[in-house]
């Protein structure tokens, strides 16, 4: 299954009478929100470029890193000195969520420069993203603007839509130590 499910794949998880065109719009919205907040899907060949503030010994990432293409360190406020670091100048740690600056290596330093540009590929989390897109779509299908409903013997109240949506999206933010 690709990251963004098809309407038939969604119907395997959600019972609905909505037409395919309406389901496509709902899926497109959920997929766009995931990409906006968490970057491209791994299936897209997700090369990510991050400009990070340096100064400390560690750089933190919101997704685990599968591979690093390049690390460029800038020293000084106006980028007085720029260095493309060798792979022995840093180490990937904490299951791929952190880059540690090493005091040994080709360009040794005990802390990162003023800011750092990292080009990297995230680990494949497309399975979790697919589940989040399905759950966001399910929430959108069930959405009712009414706070509560009553009919015959039935009485029910709705959960906070935006709160539920944020809770589903938070499943993709699993930085060790929390965020």
What does this molecule look like?
The chain is an alpha+beta fold and 179 residues long. It has two domains: 7-42 and 125-144 and 160-172; 45-122. The protein has four helices and nine strands. Helix 2 packs across helix 3. It is elongated, with a radius of gyration of 22 Å.
Task: Pick out its properties.
single chain, 179 residues, alpha+beta, 4-stranded antiparallel sheet, 3-stranded antiparallel sheet, 29% helix
Please give a quick description of this structure:
This protein is of the alpha+beta class. The chain has 4 helices and 9 strands.
Helix content: 25-40%
Shape: elongated
Mean pLDDT: 87
- One letter per element, helices H and strands E, the order comes to HHEEEEEEEHEEH
List the helices and strands and how they pair.
Blueprint: H1 7-13, H2 20-38, E1 48-53, E2 58-60, E3 65-75, E4 81-84, E5 90-93, E6 98-101, E7 115-122, H3 126-142, E8 148-151, E9 154-157, H4 161-169
Antiparallel strand pairs: 1-7, 2-6, 3-4, 3-7, 5-6, 8-9
Helix pairs in contact: 2-3, 3-4
